Every structure is written in structure tokens, then in C-alpha cells.
Amino acid sequence: MNANACLLSVIEDIYDTTFDQTLWTHTLKRIIAYAGAQSAGLVTRSAAGEIAIVHQVGVEPHFVQTYVDGYAQFDPSQAIRLCDVGKIQSTKDWLPVDEFRKGVFYQEWARPQGLEDAANVLLDRSADGFSHFSLMKGGGPVDDDWRRMLAPIIPHLLRAVLIGQVLHRHTRIVSPAAQMLDQLRAAVILLDGNGNITHTNESGRDILSRRDFLRSEHGRLVAADPQANRILRDAVTASILRNGAARSGNITLPFVAHDGERFVGHLLPLTSDRRRQTAIAYEATTVLIVSPASLDAPAASDIVRSIFKLTPAEARVLLRVVEFGGVSETARSLNIAESTVKTHLGRIFTKTETKRQADLVKLVAGFASPVRN
What we know:
Order of helices and strands: HHEEHEHHEEHHHEEHEEHHEEHEHHHHH
CATH superfamily of the largest domain: Transcription factor LuxR-like, autoinducer-binding domain
Number of strands: 12
Largest sheet: 5 strands, antiparallel
Radius of gyration: 22 Å
Low-confidence stretches: 169-180, 242-249, 295-300, 369-373
Number of helices: 17
Mean pLDDT: 79
Strand order of the largest sheet: 2-1-5-4-3
Structural class: alpha+beta
Number of domains: 3
Strand content: 15-25%
Helix content: 40-55%
Distance between the termini: 39 Å
Shape: globular
CATH architecture of the largest domain: 2-Layer Sandwich
């Protein structure tokens, strides 16, 4: 398997976890093999300091327990909560490597396992705590080459974790898929290979009943915007043809209602064998998750500014453009001149390599949570 095929395969495994959380062990093993790492884990820390190793591979149970019982307080990766969501961090980002290697955490916990460093990524942060992904390695520190190798999978990992959290956070018991989907506030629409709606949760039925930016025509899902509808059709067809690129990632679609309210749709193919285990009851090949295009999460502005290297003023304009959609509306909401908005937009287009405001909405939405909290 060549490098690109291997990467696509790993990304596909990452998305498989959204519908079956038991697949995280397999997926973490795939990431370890892809990156040449030694261990990996998904960790949560509550605001009260409680630690949970949600999923992990490569660390012996004894070391997992001693980490939770005490060594976690010496782990420099706890500083990840202060970093940008989705950005790869390593030990040297928090303290000198020499100092780290003299400390209790390295000498008593990491070194006995042959662990030298770890790449850490903040996945989620709120008033209740935070969660992060940790990929640990031996044989030297995390270098630029390792960061470049990991970079392509991080956005997919982040998005899969967010979707998976929503699909599983609203129920404490194992329930049928239909019951679980109806408990979500985000609209979930399952489609077959022809674009026919095979199942819709309550929020999805509410959206379709409006016959606005999405509607059902003789049982087939149709988008009011011609370009969005074409992308939707092509993606559904690609899921049946099992096109590698199409089935590995999800596609982000911006929608605008007649009253100006903006929504974001995330189209996730279900045609791999593991995803089909969840969707087979509905003969579905694709799921569309739709929610309001909200960027009011605590870390949203930090994410946008970091990813696109925007100045604070540019980030402020970008977020308002995404929310309000026009130069005049943005200028009024920020109490600045339209010419100022246009100047900032020109710089934003250059930095994000986009040409239209609709492209900005789609681009930003790709880094936002695909569901309402």
C-alpha cells in the first residue's frame, strides 16, 4: 500500500469510529502504525481534575493506572488546555527537553516504557474540562517531519471525535439507532445510493417540513441551491462507486435559509463495511448532519485565527461575515466602514486562498463542530 492509500485508509478508519466507539482501539493501532509511534490515547480531564483514559493502546495496564493515580499531575501535556484546538503540540512547546528529562514524569513513568516524547492535540474545551489526543513515541523527540506526517489526519480526527460525541452523548444506554438519532438536536438524514431519504430524525423532519434550503421531492433529498444540490448528488453517487477519496472524508456544505439563517451540512459516506453495520437497517450509504452555522464555541475564534494566520481584526470580520453574510451587514454589526470590511476581506481571501464569501463559510464550517451543543 503506497503512502496516499495508507493515509486514506487510516482516515476511513477514523470516521468509522463515529458510529461504533468500540473501533477506537483498532483505529488507534492504525494511527500508531501509520506514524511509527509506540502508543496512543484519547484522554479527558474534568474541571475538577478527574482524569479518564477513554481509549488507549500501547501502554500496559499498570502504567495506565499509575498515570491516573498520580503521574498525570506531572505530565506537561496537561498544558494542552491552554492551546488552540486542533494544533499539534509536543513537550518542547511547554518546557525545555533537558528539563523534562530530569523530571519525575519522564524518569519514573515515560522512560521505563521507552517513551521519549508525545504529539498532543486539544480536541475539545469547555467550562467542564477538556479532551485531547496523545500519540507517544520513542527514539527521540517529535520533530517537524513527524508533525507534517500527522497534520493530514488531525482535522479528520477532530471532526470524527466531535460527531461521535454527539451521536453518543445523549443516551446512557444502548438503544436502537432510530431512538438514538431522534434524541439528537442536530438534523440527521440518511440517504441511499439514489439520494432517497431512508430515515430522518425529528430535527431532520422539522427542516424538511419547512421546504426551504432542503426539501423532499418524491422521497428524494433536494437542496435549493443548485451548486449544493450538484455536490450532494455527486457525493451520493461517489459513495456507491466506492471512490476512495469520497468515502474517506466528509464533505461540508453551507446552506442559507430564506430568512438568512445559515446552516452547515456534513455529508459522511457510510459505505465501508464497519459503517454499514450501523446504517444497513436503513439501506443507507450516506448520512447528512445539518446544524446552524454557529461559531460561538469558546475556542472558535482561536481556531480560525490560528489556522488562517489572521490578525485579530481580520478574524473578527471573518466571523461576522460567516454569521451575517454581507459587507453592509458586517460593517453595521461591527460599527466600521464598508471600505474597511472590504479591505479585511481582501486580505482574508488571500490568506485562505478563497474568492467568494460562500467559500469562506464553507471553509470555516469545516473546522467548526458539525452539531449543535
